[in-house]
Structures are given as structure tokens and as C-alpha cells.
Amino acid sequence: MPGLHTSRVRALYRRILQLHRVLPPDLKALGDQYVKDEFRRHKTVGSDEAQRFLQEWEAYAAVLWQQAKDNRQNSTEKTCFGISLPEEKLNDFRDEQIGQLQELMQEATKPNRQFSIIESTKPKL
């Protein structure tokens, strides 16, 4: 992302992947892949778009951090991650972004996701 401090971008990227560790394994895998794809896709965007991109991901990280913190404090309640997307924000999206959002929603709400995470129950030697 030209014009932005690479260290800021890398730190945000690492922070998001760390925050994803609190997600259920299937959502973590989906989220990690989406973050990697998005950061790769935005590597060469202009300064204004890069700034908006970082602001949105910083807001996402802040929400996820707060939800993880709330989850630790209220461990008896079912955890929900994410927030509703206001219609005004959707109106600012390009058609390509709407398509990506629909794909992400379909993948996240599939009863049987296209990948499965199997935790090994074998003792490590």
C-alpha cells in the first residue's frame, strides 16, 4: 500500500490473525483466508483507498477485540462475533465488493463448509 507505513499494515495484519484465534475453528480458517486475500488484493491501491482500507480493518479489529473480551467475561452466554452492516455502508460498496460480501456470507452460513478442521485427539509424543 503505497504511501502508508508498511509496519502499520503488517502490525494490523498480525493483530487480526491473532484476534481470529478466539473464533471457532471453521470461522477462524474462513476469516484468516479472507484477510490474507484482502490484504494481498489491496497491496497496490492508491493512498486514499489504502487509508479507507486500513480504517475499516482497524475498526474490525477493535470490534473483534471487544467481543472477545466480552466473551471471556460472560463465558456462559453464546458468543456472537461480528456486527450488522448498515445499509448506508452497503451503498458505498462497488459491485465487486457486494459480490465478495455475498460469497463470504454464503460460506459463513453454510451448514457444511467446504473445508473441515479436524483436531487431532492422538497424544503428542
TrEMBL record:
Subunit organization: Interacts with the iron-sulfur protein subunit within the SDH catalytic dimer.
CDD domains: Complex1_LYR_SDHAF3_LYRM10
Keyword Nucleotide-binding included in the entry's annotation: no
Main location group: mitochondrion
Function description: Plays an essential role in the assembly of succinate dehydrogenase (SDH), an enzyme complex (also referred to as respiratory complex II) that is a component of both the tricarboxylic acid (TCA) cycle and the mitochondrial electron transport chain, and which couples the oxidation of succinate to fumarate with the reduction of ubiquinone (coenzyme Q) to ubiquinol. Promotes maturation of the iron-sulfur protein subunit of the SDH catalytic dimer, protecting it from the deleterious effects of oxidants. May act together with SDHAF1.
UniProt similarity note: Belongs to the complex I LYR family. SDHAF3 subfamily.
This protein's name: Succinate dehydrogenase assembly factor 3
Keywords: Chaperone, Mitochondrion, Transit peptide
GO CC list: mitochondrial intermembrane space; mitochondrial matrix
InterPro entries cross-referenced by the UniProt entry: SDHAF3/Sdh7
Tagged with keyword Chaperone: yes
Pfam families found in the cross-reference section: Complex1_LYR_2 (PF13233)
GO biological process per UniProt: mitochondrial respiratory chain complex II assembly; succinate metabolic process
Protein's cellular compartments: Mitochondrion matrix
